[in-house]
TrEMBL record:
One of its GO terms (molecular function) is transmembrane transporter activity. This is Spermidine/putrescine import ATP-binding protein PotA. It comes from the Bacteria. Keywords: ATP-binding, Nucleotide-binding, Translocase, Transport. It comes from Phocicoccus pinnipedialis.
């Protein structure tokens, strides 16, 4: 088992700075998800860990061993690519067997390991099927079987579920999570789907433009996003501007509210985030802010209600409470559900580190 340590990793393609000062340690045996918009560098980061791209600078360690010069085939890592990259002319069994044959693993051991990999991925009954005769989900399982048969310490999965339809995708999410727990190895999973990231991960790394903006448990990231970018990227959120008055007190539109955050200088402009599901509708004047109901959408489990406050800000609310368009009501949220963010805090820190690094380069 191996801990993966990325130290000051930078990646340039030509003049373009793709990964910027990546410092992160993946602990062994956990399910990590790298989440971020298209082009932010997720696949590049996986490829550096897998050994398919050599970083421009910085160090990669597996445990105490420096991996910078170690080729992909000498790393205890297997990758499941987005397009699965299966061999179409080989059947399921042969696809899974391929890597072991190349490595000249003995026939007896090979058979045992393939049997186990097929069992883990529920493919035993499909052993002799041609690849073209499999569904998307089955193909995905073959790709995973082909990776785990090598008994890697680390499995990298790049957008592995994105080709599947919604129901199958949810099924596969359960299977993937279960598989990771059974194998007990490190999974690093790449996706741009935030719900998937929340459902699967022990830890989520949110990336933006080559930076890791925040890393933490799904609950931490959802409840305590460091900035507006993370808050917006993970789930829906209402974000209004305000000012910190003192520890435990913040003002919104000039009105003081109790909050649970502190440690920010009095007078600092802040952003206050409230999740749509944390807002309660109350009769006019009985909540924090008076609002007018602008629109109501039925979403199955809840209504999605948009209301306008007196300053023209549109709040989104997820609730099972009923109301009517045009009605004047009031919104209320508990102090625990107000999350205070200081704009620019994290960006400043990043810029300082970046400048420092660029000075050395
Ligand atoms: N070999 C390469 N040569 C030049 N530019 C590259 C190369 N590989 C990636 N890039 C660029 O690096 C940036 C990050 O690419 P990457 O594939 O890591 O993004 P991603 O986060 O995986 O995006 P997506 O969600 O679309 O898969 C992109 O702008 C891409 O065009
Ligand atoms: Mg990618």
């Amino acid at each position: 088992m191996t801990e993966i340590r990325l130290q000051n990793i930078n990646q340039y393609f030509g003049e373009t700075h793709i990964l910027k000062n990546i410092d992160f340690t993946f602990l062994e045996g956990k399910f990590y998800t790298i989440l971020g918009p298209s082009g932010c560098g997720k696949t590049t980061l996986l490829k550096i860990i897998g050994g398919f791209v050599n970083q421009t600078s910085g160090d990669l360690y597996f445990g105490d061993k420096k991996m910078n010069e170690i080729p992909a085939n000498k790393r205890q890592v297997n990758t499941v690519f987005q397009d699965y990259a299966l061999f179409p002319h080989l059947n399921v069994y042969e696809n899974v067997a391929f890597g072991l044959k190349i490595k000249k693993v003995s026939k007896v051991e090979r058979e045992a390991r393939i049997k186990e990999a097929l069992r883990f991925t529920n493919l035993t009954d499909f052993k002799y099927r041609d690849i073209e005769q499999l569904s998307g989900g089955q193909k995905q399982r073959v790709a995973i079987a082909r990776a785990i048969v090598n008994e890697p310490d680390i499995l990298l999965l790049d957008e592995s579920l994105s080709a599947l339809d919604h129901n199958l995708r949810v099924d596969m999410q359960y299977e993937l999570k279960e598989l990771q727990q059974k194998l007990g190895i490190t999974f690093i999973f790449v996706t741009h789907d935030q719900e998937e990231a929340l459902a699967l991960s022990d830890e989520i790394l949110v990336m933006d433009k080559g930076h890791i903006v925040q890393a933490g448990s799904p609950k931490d990231i959802y409840d305590e996003p460091l900035n507006k970018y993370v808050a917006d990227f993970i789930g829906e959120s209402n974000i209004v501007e305000g000012e910190m008055l003192e520890d435990g007190k913040v003002s919104i539109y000039g009105r003081a509210y109790e909050c649970v955050d502190g440690g920010v200088k009095s007078g600092t402009p802040v952003e206050i985030m409230v999740r749509p599901e944390d807002i309660v509708l109350k009769p006019l004047e009985e909540g924090h802010l008076n609002v007018t109901v602008d629109s109501i959408l039925f979403r199955g489990v809840h209504y999605e209600i948009c209301v306008l406050d007196e300053d023209g800000y549109e709040w989104v609310i997820h609730t099972t409470q009923k109301t009517e368009e045009g009605k004047k009501v009031s919104i209320y949220f508990d102090k625990e559900d107000m999350h205070i963010m200081v704009p620019g805090e994290k960006e400043d820190e990043f810029n300082e580190r970046l400048e420092l690094y660029e000075g050395i380069l």
